[in-house]
Amino acid sequence: MREAKDALVLLLAGGIGSRLNILVGHRAKPAVPFGGLYRIIDFSLSNVMNSGLTRVGVLTQYKPLSLMRHIGTGEAWDFTGRTRGIKILPPRTGEKDSDWYKGTADAIRQNIDFIQGNPSEQVVILSGDHIYQMDFDAMIAYHRHKKADITIGMMVVPKSEIHQFGAGIVDDHNRIIDWEEKPKEPKTNLASMGIYVFDTKYLLDTLSRNRKENDFGMHIIPRAIEEDRVFAYPFYGYWRDVGTIQSYWETNMDIIRPDSEISPEEWEIRPNTEADGLPMDRAPGRFISGCEVHSSMISAGCVIEGTVVNSVLSPGVIVKKGAVVRDSVIFEDSVIEADARVDLAVCDKRVSIGRSAIVGYGDNKEIPNHKFPSHLYTGITLVGKRAIVPAGMKIGRNCIVNPGYNGDNAVSPAKLEDGGIL
Amino acid sequence: MLKPSTLAMILAGGRVGELGVLTHYRPKSAVPFGGFARVIDFPLTNLMHSGIELIAILSQYRSYSLINHIGTGAAWDMIGRHRGISILPPFKDYENPHWYRGSADAVYQNLDFIRYHKPAEILVLSGDHIYQMDYRNMIRYHNEQDADLTAAFIRVEKKDAASRFGVAEIGDEHDEGGRLISYEEKPENPKGHWASLTVLCFRPEVLYEVLKENQSNSSYEFGRDIIPMMMERNMKVYGYKFRDYWGYTGTVDEYWQTSMDLLGSNPKIDMEKWGLRTNLEHRGIRDCQPLKVGSSGVLDNSMAYNGCIVEGTVKNSILFPGVRVEKGAEVKDSVLFFNTIVKSGARLDRVVSDVNTTFGQNVQVGVAGANGPDKVTVIGWNNHVPANMIIGSGCTVAPGISVEKWPQQGLRDLEDLQ
């Protein structure tokens, strides 16, 4: 049974997420495929649904088309009905505001009319790019019990990682008494998960105080801690920000570990069955005599003749005879031709890896990508949407094959050195 | 052309005794097939790909499972201004106190529904065959011949057809088929070698007339009564020669064989390429995560949909969503329906297991000695086979056997447990 009254949910889905490199070349970060059948945003949307919340606004900005198509009517997450609904809120021109979203708080401020038009006692603000399971109903109940103005979902992270987050120091009652945004030398290991519950009245008031305060973590929260009641809501489960290629890959790999803490099905995470290509209307995966599959997740519609180890395959991936896929994430309808090898790679949709080609060649994972050394430095190679890797080609570590590359200018046998870009 | 001109009537009323425990609680057309779908999804997908979007399903036996499966019809895109699937259950009214007394009677009782739609052709299909067919080719042929009835047939050996199918001799006028020369229902010594597929295309006025006349009879079947009557009257009856794969599911052995035909690198029907559709909301299979294969899992010449977890060995088998095969378990030549659980150490050989059945640790089913009958063992739904139980080959276990009823010594080959 639901504890709290129906709160309004605002999902921030506008960030570029540029560290995901070519995976976000044509789609917003929340729309990046994840875990075979899902998109990243499915986790947040399903958590909202499973918490019994029924009114959602999705704030989009960067390449929203793929995301909008994915959300559709919202039927997949039960957001259709007379009072339920999910609305896309792009930046727009108006009498006063006519600009792009300048930050998280600014994005919410530009949609004050939406908040006013959907009366609520609390507003839940989420970001659309985290992998986790959480009950917002319990969080709202906690918020009300604490009589808080703002409640922030927080969890303990290793001190070495805290520089990526907002960090809070709490008293014995979990009231936040100090705040550091992305601290270089942290005083705490309690990190903000970017999940906020605001009292609606308080939110409207605080946003109107200073229109130059554009960001929650940098401006709104630090001021609120000094002046108002801000509480931490401790979270103890699995939670990952999949904003970098490394964490995106690791989080995918986490699903297939034997002692995995993530189970999309047990978490009741719902993908959109009506999404492009009707991902569930695929026939069962077929495993041809002589294939070898271990420690992997394989979606319907795949045909496996070769070897798949420690990998996550989206629907319709074909692994031909003699081909080996290892430690990789392969999106929909990609084809790995006979005797090809894909090792430590993320392949976008409809990629073709030619006969006997190698993606992830050699053992040297130390040379970072020349152009994006901060994106690719652990050995992972990216292959962009619809790219064609010609037969026999060798592609090294930390490489990028750009979307749509068709191998036209390749010499045979072609080779891309570690850290290179095609 | 917006309004559909062809009305399809699917005969989905029957239970088919030979499928035994698989049809205790569902009509044959709702029996799971193909690793995620139901038998009726094959004709429905054929209709969808043939652009026929006005469909009635005649349903009588335990229709809930079927009604649940059809849902709104959206799964096959059959909703919209002129698209739709109607389920027509038997009913009582002023004149008629009966159940459906046969396939022809079922259609007759719904003539007002048919007339309302004013179809140009009426396609009558059986809901329980596994095949891929574009009905448009047959309808085109029917119209070219200006036929009263065109029926589809497949070539079989005479000995295989004896006492089993409706058998015809068909003229050689055209590539597609020809005038029906003779028709016999389940003959002992067939004259022809073309077996009826129960895919019938009627001229509506003629169908109305023959069905009405048939009412004075005491048998009401298309194969046994209607086609012979039309032949006798010398009406324009044509045979359409179907030359592709046709899978039967009338007995457990046929069901098993037709399932096995889906495996291998050249399956008889490539469901993925064809675009077989099922209702993903039925049993909530839309909510399954991808198949998870553990570090010790083996899948060989097999098929598995989302939602399965394989830690053991699976060979020549089909796993429906939610099947779990634990470490050390071995599944061979089997078809396991939704949510079947195979515990560690269990060995299944030639088993068809209905939904929600658990095989306890070290259970052996169908692992016969060298001289075993090598027949399929069927386990009904909601069973918990106790650990260490040994079940022979060709056995049948009724649904939901309570714990104390399981015999300690197990089941010998061909034994039944009720």
Short note summarizing the structure:
By secondary structure, chain A is α/β, with parallel strands linked by helices. Helices cover 17% and strands 26% of the residues of chain A. By secondary structure, chain B is α/β, with parallel strands linked by helices.
Please give a structural write-up:
The complex is a heterodimer of chains A (422) and B (418). Chain A is of the alpha/beta class and 422 residues long. Chain A has 2 domains: 8-256, Spore Coat Polysaccharide Biosynthesis Protein SpsA, Chain A, CATH 3.90.550.10; 282-422, Hexapeptide repeat proteins (UDP N-Acetylglucosamine Acyltransferase, domain 1). Helices cover 17% and strands 26% of the residues of chain A. In chain A, the strands form 7 sheets. Chain A has a 7-stranded mixed beta sheet with strand order 5-4-1-6-11-8-12. Chain A has a 7-stranded parallel beta sheet with strand order 15-18-21-24-27-30-32, with no helix packed on it. With 418 residues, chain B is an alpha/beta fold. Chain B has 2 domains: 6-260, Alpha-Beta Complex (Spore Coat Polysaccharide Biosynthesis Protein SpsA, Chain A), CATH 3.90.550.10; 288-417, Hexapeptide repeat proteins (UDP N-Acetylglucosamine Acyltransferase, domain 1, 3 Solenoid). Chain B has 10 helices and 32 strands. The longest helix of chain B has 11 residues, at 204-214. Chain B starts with 5 loop residues before the first strand and ends with a strand. The model of chain B has no long low-confidence stretch (mean pLDDT 91). Chains A and B meet through strand 14, strand 15, strand 16, strand 17 and strand 19 of A and strand 14, strand 15, strand 16 and strand 19 of B.
